[in-house]
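## Example record

The block below lists the input lines for one assembly entry, exactly as stored, with component labels intact.
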Amino acid sequence: MADHVIRLPDVGEGVAEAELVEWHVKVGDLVREDAVLAAVMTDKATVEIPSPVEGEITWLGANVGDVIAVGSDLVRLKVPGEDVPVVVPSPAEIKQKPPSAKPRGEAKPMLAPSAEPSAETTEPREPPEAAPHPARRLPAHAAPARQTSFGAPRAEGLRPLASPAVRLRAREGGIDLRQVPGTGPAGRITHEDLDSFFARGPSVGRSAGLQPKTGVEELKLIGLRRKIAEKMATAHSHIPAITYVEEVDVTALEELRASLNKEKRQTLQRLTLLPFLMRALVRAVAEHPVVNSLFDDAAGVLHQHAGVHIGIATQTPSGLMVPVVRHAEALDLWGCAAELARLSEAAKAGTAQRDELTGSTITITSLGALGGVISTPIINHPEVAIVGVNKMSVRPHWDGTDFVPRKMMNLSSSFDHRVIDGFDAAVFTQRLKALLEAPALIFMESST
Amino acid sequence: MKDISCRLLVLGAGPGGYVCAIRAGQLGIDTVLVEAKKPGGTCLNVGCIPSKALIHAADEFDKAVHFASADNPFGISASKPALDLAKTIVWKDGVVGRLTGGVSALLKKAGVKIVEGWGKFRDGKTVEVETQTGLQVIRAGEIVIATGSAAVELPILPFGGRVISSTEALALTQVPRNLVIVGAGYIGLELGTAFAKMGAKVTVVEALSRVLPQYDAELTRPVGKRLRELGIEVMTEARAQGLNSKGEALIVEAADGRKKTLAADKILVTVGRKPVTEGFGLEAIDLDRDGSFIRVDDKCRSSMRGVYAIGDVTGEPMLAHRAMAQGEMVAEIVAGEKRAWDKISIPAICFTDPEIVATGLSPEEAKAAGIETKIGVFPFQASGRAMTMAKEAGFIRVVARADNHLIIGIQGVGDGISELGGGFSLAIEMGTRLEDVAGTIHPHPTRSEAFLEASLRALGHAIHI
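Predicted C-alpha cells for the full assembly:
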C-alpha cells in the first residue's frame, strides 16, 4: 500500500484559494478513480474535486467552511501498490456545477472579461502515474458504512417505551409519557428524559401548549451565504451611500403595459414593469452616465461604462443572486423582457453560467408585491448606483381640483455619495420618474 | 352482632385478595378480608401450589423408575420403586398448610382483620357475612371483589363419582389405573403427565386438533412428543359424549366419527375455568359485565363507584400473578396513589414435561398485529447445560421488532424453563432490545445462555449454532 496525497488543484480563474463547501467522502471510505471527493467554491463557481486514483481515504485536510489555498494538501489516500509516497494534484477539470457564488461587483472580469481564464477550458491533467487497479472491486461511489439509526419518533398509537420505574415516576408526577420524547435505545424514555421533562415545569410540561425554547443552533455560513455576507459587508463598509426616494405615477405605464400584453403575440414574453424600467434606465443613463460606473476606490479611478449591463437582484433557493442583462442599451423592450425571464429562471434553477452572473454596471432590485413603501438598497460594490422598486398601489392623488385614484409606486435608489452628489442623484431619479410617468418618452427616437 | 365499619373490604382471600389486603394494611388502610375457606384461594389450596407439589413428587418417582430400568445412561442401578400416594398427599398438604399459615400471619402482621364466612353484597357499600357465630354486617368505604374462578363443569359430565375436577384430582390418595382427562389445556396435561409418571394409564380427550391449543404448534411439539413417550394416549378432535350406562367408562366420539368407550377409574374434566360471579349477591349491585366477567377499567374500577374487581373474576389471563399485581395496584389506588394498569408482560407457564413459558407476542401474533419481526430460536440440543442434564428437548425463541429490535415476545419450552420466566418478563417490561440481551453476560453453563444465543441469532450472529 502506498500513501497518496491529493492537493487542491488550480480550479481555474487564477484564484488562489477556495472554500470547502462539501465533503463527499470520509476517512475510511474506499473511493475509485473519478469518484467525487469534495466540492470547493470560488468566487465564481462550485467545483467538484474528483479522485485521480482509487484507494482508501486516510486523512481529510479541512473542514467544511474552511478556505484552502490552491496546492495545499486536501486528501490523503492509501492506494494499492508499492510503498512509495505519491503526491498528485487532483486533475483540475472538473465538472462545473452551476455557479452559486453571487458575483457582486467583481471588478476584474468587467475590465477584461475575455481574458478571463475559464475552468471549462482547462485541460484535465493526467495523474503522474497510472493508477494501479486492484483486484478488489470497489463500489461506484464511496460507500460509507450504513449506519442503523434507532430512536425514530414514535409512530401514532405506539405505546411509549419505558421501564416500570420510569412509568411509576411519570404517573406520580402526573406526566403522560406519550408527551415525553425518549432518547434511549428504540426511543425508550429514560429517567433523564423524565428529569428534563420535569425541569421544564409542570405547567408547561403537562400540556402541548406554549413552551419556552432554550436551544441555540449554530449554523456555519458556507457557500453562497458566506459570499453574500462578505459582499454585503464590503459594500456597506466601503460605500457612503445616499438613498433617495421618489414616488412615480405609473398609471399611464400600467395602461400601456396592459394593452401591450393584451395584444401580445404568443411567442413574446409577457411584460412586467421591469423591462420598462430597464429601458427607462438606459435612457436616463445616457443623460447621466456617471451612475453607470464602477469605482475602483483603491486606484482612485472611476470606470464609466458605455454599455448598460443591468444586474437584476434575484431571490433563489440558495440565496440572493444577481444575473446580468448585458447591453440593455442594445435590447428593445421585448428583448429586455425575454432576457430577464431567461436569466432569472436560470438563476433560480441554478443553471446560470458564470458570465451571466458577472459584469453588471448598475443594478435593479425589486421584490414585487413584497416591495414595501421604502427600502434602502445596498449598492452592488463596486457599482455606484442601485435602483430599488417598491410596491405599486392605488393612492389618492391631488390633481389640482380633486383627489383621483392613481397607480403609484416608489423608487428607492442608493448612490455612492463619494462620486455622486445628492443633486445628481435627485436629477437622475427625477429623470427616471419623468420617463416612467410618460412612457412614450422612453420609446421616442433620440429624445433628450 | 355488632356491625363492622371499615375503609376497605376485600371479598376473597386468593392471591389477588390477600395481596390487596396486605398492601392496604401496609399503607395504613383499615381493611377487612372476607373468606369462607382458608386464605390463599384456588392457587394455594387447590391450584398452583398443590399441583406443583404433586408434579414434583411424580417427577421424583419417575426418576426412580428410570434408575430401576437398565437403560439409564448414568450408570445408576436401583430396585423397583413404589409410591404411597397417600403419603405424598400428606406432604403436599403440609406444604399448602405452611403457605396458607404464612399468608394468615402476613395478613395479621399488616393489621388486616379477617372475617371467616361467606360474604354477600347487600348494597354497594355493605356486605353481610354468614359466620359461624351469626350474620356479620360490614360497611366499607370501598369494596374489592376478588372471588376468583372455578372449574367449568360439562353438562354431560357433571362432577361427582368418577367425574372429578382438578381439586379432587389433587386429593386422590390412590393412583387411578385408568385416568381419562377431558381437555388438553395446561391443567389437564400437567396432572395427566404427573399421574402417568405415577403409573396411571392416561388418555387425553381434546376437541381441538392438538394439545395446548392456545400456544403455537412449534412450542407444544416437545410436549406432545414427551406425552407419547410416557404412554399417554392423546385423542384430538374427539368429543366426550358422557358416561356409559354402568357409569364406569367414558364414551368418546373420535375424530373419524366412531364411538369409543374408554374404561376409566377417574374422569378428570379440565375444560377451563369460569369466573365466580354467583352466590355473593352480585345481582344486588348490578355491575357491567364483559361476557361472564366483571368489566373493569385500567384501575380495576367496576361500573359502580367504590367497587373494584381484581383477578380471575375480571377476565383472562386467569393467572395468580396477574391477580396479585392488580391487588397491589388497587390497594395503592385506595390509598390515594396514582396508579393504573400498564403491565406489558404477563408471562404464562405450563408445568408440563417439558415446561413451557411464554410472554409477549408469538411470531404469529406479531404478524397478525402487522409488526415486521426478527426472530431468533436457540435449541437446547446445542446447550451444554441441557446435555449435562440429559434433557435436551426444547428451545428459547425471541421475537423482536425488525425496525428497532425491541423485544416483544419471548417463548421457550424445556426442562426447568419456568425459572427463566422472570428474566423474560423483566426483559420485556424494561423495553430491552436484542442488543441489550446480546450484550448481557449470561452465566455458563446454564440454560439461560439459550436466551442470549437466541437474541444473537435474531441479530444474525449466534456463536454456538
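Chain B touches chain A at residues 337-340, 342, 344, 401, 403-406, 429-431, 433, 435-436 (CB under 8 Å). The mean pLDDT of chain B is 96.
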